[in-house]
Amino acid sequence: MMTRIIMDKLEGNQIIRDHLILIGMIDGDTSVENGGFLELHGMINGTCVLLPGSKTLLRGMVNGNVTNNGGELEIFGMVNGDLIRQEGTTTFDANAVINGNIL
């Protein structure tokens, strides 16, 4: 799997199908698809949805809801919205901040 490192701002909705290390910002909704791996050290201004077979390591911030629809989600950072756990595995560190409901 190819790894991309992005330190810039991405405008618009994004679909992650590879290994992305984001140190910058996404200004739009983000979908992590089957086989995709998002390491978020930066910020997403929008929703973040994990689909079955995906993985997300959230060390940065999401300004919107995070929905796990069957992926593997680890939260160490901040979610300024709801955390919606439909399927998959969701774990969060004791220092993680969820500024919304955990559903």
**Rg (C-alpha, Å):** 12 Å
DSSP strand (E) fraction?
over 45%
First and last CA, distance = 32 Å
How many beta-strand runs?
15
Low-pLDDT segments, ≥5 res: none
Protein described:
- This protein has no helices and 15 strands.
- It starts with a strand and ends in a 5-residue tail after the last strand.
- The mean pLDDT is 97.
- Helices cover 0% and strands 57% of the residues.
- With 103 residues, it is an all-beta fold.
- It has strands at 3-6, 9-11, 14-16, 19-22, 25-27, 30-32, 37-40, 43-44, 48-50, 55-58, 61-62, 66-75, 78-79, 83-92, 97-98.
- The chain has one domain.
- The protein is globular and about 30 Å long.
- The strands form 2 sheets. Strands 1, 3, 4, 6, 7, 9, 10, 12 and 14 form a 9-stranded parallel beta sheet that branches.
